[in-house]
Amino acid sequence: MADLEHLNVLIIEANQGMRGQLRSMLNGFGIADVSFAPSAGMAINRLRERRHDIILCEYNLGEGQDGQHLLEDLRTKEIIPLDTLFIMITGERNYERVVSAAELAPNDYILKPLTPDSLHMRLSRAIEKREVFRPVYRMIDAGDTQRAIDECARGRTENPRHRVDFMRLEAELHSVLGHTENAEDIYREILATKAVPWARLGLAKVLFSKKEYGAADEILSSLVAENSRYIDAYDWLARTREESGRIEEAREVLASAVALSPHRLGRLRHLGSVQLAAGDNEGAERTLAEVVRKGKYSDFRDPEDHVQLVRAQLGQGRTEEAQSTIRDLERSMDGLPATTICSSLSKALYHSKTGAPELAQAALQAALQAGANLSAVSVGLKQELVKACLDNHLEAEGSQLVMDILRNAADERTIEKTREILQERGCGALSNELEQRVHVEVKGLIAAGADMVRSGDYDGAVREMMSAVQKMPGNPHVLFNAALALLRHIENRGWSERFAAQARGLIARTRRLDPANPRLDAISGFMQQLVKKYNPRQTG
């Protein structure tokens, strides 16, 4: 039986009596290090302050929040590490069906009423399973995804009890690396024995990444038909139809998902953006007003939501409402890095709509003067800025924004969308010119760093490439070559923990931005060789 005494536990539960009962049970197992959070917001703060071994979370958190939403936020925002166990406590008898269909499932769940014996047994079982998977988690945290895949392959052979769990993780890691064929093979192997919902969803996601939208749609449609509460399947079905150009159908799917799960901010945002794309400004205003209302009290509030709401209101000619939204943006989002840019863009859109081009230009100039905060806004908002600049005869300013987008473009879709924006405004030649200028700029930066390495100036190569990272923090080619410069420095000048940490971070960022990069496996292997050569205490 697992030793529980050394563990620390966070209890997320609004009911004070239940918090006391759980603490008494945990104390009875020898677990003295217990802390509490009565709400999702307080839980997020606690988890940012300190790492926990176990989270015991009530499913129904009140005020429109539930434990599943919280789990998704914690995992997707990387607030908790993989080896933190998340265990749901629920009185919902149909929760088994909910969790079997969840893309991000808790490590375990316990139905109420719970007894000390059942809680002890589930905690012990979860800890024992964590220890089996811990080597893989450590490799993932270190950014060594290929070794983690190899460990999964070994784990499913040596631990037949957890074979399917290792296969699931292995498939997900292959997807991270862009190994779509390997991931597809694993999902199909699982499905050959049992039609597991999450494996079908995984297969659909692989097909989506291969742009086989018809095949992905077929799987996702059947998942939704069989389980009307499979929210993750709705989300991916909407994305699939969006990419297929079926905006109206994507809107309908998302509306159904929101009706079933109305409190998830990310899903509401997605619905609002699709409604805007479909020209449904009235529906978009309703949705985005709810996003803004909920977002004010969220740890993940975003001033860009106000900009989207302004767009929906102006699309209906509701200028007074748009003015009110802008005032609310400046008041409720004050202090956030993106607020100044979002406010200025909103004002520019308002002035363009009300026929005041000089004021629109002045507002856009104010947005661009806050350029230091451009990194705080999404690519989508930068593209809206480009549109506004070109529509208000600020071609030079628009061109600079396009250059910024292209310098940090993480995928071909970003480049295509930016190209479309310029072409729609009769600037196709400008698009080609700017793309070529960025290509030459990136190539020159990388070549300069490589020349310094070849000449033995490893310090200079690191300085050159880290300066390039500051200029282009979202460009995967620059990030990759900066990591390589750091590793070449270690190879020739000896171990540097600071350089090693920087290289790990750059490799991880490159992997997130460009998972299909064929050179990622090689640079990860190179790093492992250097760790073994210079820093043996970190291996294992």
From TrEMBL:
It comes from Aromatoleum diolicum. This is Response regulator. Signal peptide: none annotated. It holds the Pfam family TPR_19. Coiled coil: none annotated. Residues 8-127 form the Response regulatory domain. InterPro entries: CheY-like_superfamily (IPR011006), Sig_transdc_resp-reg_receiver (IPR001789), TPR-like_helical_dom_sf (IPR011990), WalR-like (IPR039420). It comes from the Bacteria. Keywords: DNA-binding, Phosphoprotein, Transcription, Transcription regulation, Two-component regulatory system.
